[in-house]
Design brief:
Helix Hairpins, about 50% helix, elongated
């Protein structure tokens, strides 16, 4: 089997550029990184799929080829294209929603995650500081915290 170096260099370049763009905090750049990685995977599947040949239909020939083309690679690429377009639509919806809420496109740190990550747990912390469950609220009766207040269940 002959391996061509140009597609492999293109796959490596697309993948490395896609990973670089995914590491950015801008949602548009993240989307472009996802699309570049998706195209790199498609090229990889096409390269690994082997040489072209006759169509995978009995009795059909193309340019006098002896071998038959592998239809699995083509089917996988079509599936990967559909999946990458679905992911792109989802990320575009996230970017639009984020822009409408905050009028910026940068993904910032979540304040709650930052607070939790900066919290230092002391080793000599007393167990009295840990809240205990209230036994009087531990009933099967519905209360204001239930998802369906007033739901009595099946009788």
């Amino acid at each position: 089997m002959t391996t061509y170096i140009v597609p492999l260099i293109m796959i490596g370049g697309l993948t490395s550029t896609g990973v670089y763009l995914l590491l950015e905090r801008n949602l548009t750049r993240m989307l472009l990184g996802l699309l570049l990685i998706g195209n790199a995977v498609n090229l990889l599947i096409l390269t690994v799929g082997g040489a072209s040949g006759n169509p995978p239909i009995r009795g059909r020939t193309s340019n006098g080829s002896e071998a038959t083309a592998d239809p699995l690679a083509q089917g996988m690429i079509l599936t990967a294209i559909v999946i990458s377009m679905g992911i792109a639509a989802f990320v575009l919806a996230l970017a639009y929603r984020s822009y409408r809420l905050t009028t910026i496109e940068e993904v910032s740190n979540d304040p709650e995650d930052t607070r939790v990550s900066l919290k230092v747990v002391d080793e000599d912390e007393d167990e009295d500081d840990i809240p205990k469950p209230d036994a009087s609220r531990d009933t099967d009766a519905p209360d204001e915290l239930d998802a369906l207040p007033g739901f009595e269940g099946s009788k």
